[in-house]
Write a structure and sequence with these properties.
Layout (H helix, E strand, L loop, with lengths): L25 H11 L14 H12 L3 H15 L3 H13 L3 E4 L4 E4 L1 H6 L6 H12 L1
Antiparallel strand pairs: 1-2
Helix pairs in contact: 2-3, 4-6
């Protein structure tokens, strides 16, 4: 048993869906056990982004007018269904793959709509993350 003379902090970041999860799910039980021990647990529920919110996010991210990012954000929204985690990973992968890039000659971000539209991505966020992790090795 470790006794601390000063209060300490411990940060855990996790993500899981709250639908389709059993009452005896390990993540749910872990969170409940932390609460039972008196640990302050902060839960942030993320909701799906509508097309307008996603376009605002893309516009802010690329420092372009929402009018200019509408076509890209429509494709991204269709592929991610507005899931914020899926959105952030997809945008990062588009940059990594060169489908979204900053052009110095134009002094702005440009993208290949046709290639992004035809790009195959998993329907499930977990599958997408698994695929992305596989790309790291």
């Amino acid at each position: 048993l470790l006794l601390l003379s000063k209060p300490s902090r411990f940060f855990i970041f996790g993500s899981y869906r709250d639908y389709g999860v059993n009452e005896d799910d390990d993540n749910r039980l872990f969170i409940e056990s932390l609460s039972d021990l008196g640990v302050s647990v902060e839960t942030i529920k993320m909701t799906l982004m509508d097309q307008g919110s996603l376009n605002d996010a893309v516009s802010d991210l690329l420092c372009l007018s929402p009018r200019l990012t509408r076509s890209l954000s429509d494709i991204v929204h269709h592929k991610t269904k507005g899931n914020p985690l899926f959105f952030s990973r997809l945008m990062a992968s588009l940059i990594t793959e060169g489908l979204l890039q900053f052009r110095l000659s134009c002094r702005r971000w440009v993208w290949d709509e046709e290639s992004i539209q035809s790009r195959k991505i998993p329907d499930d966020v977990a599958e997408f993350f698994t695929h992305a992790m596989g790309m790291l090795s």
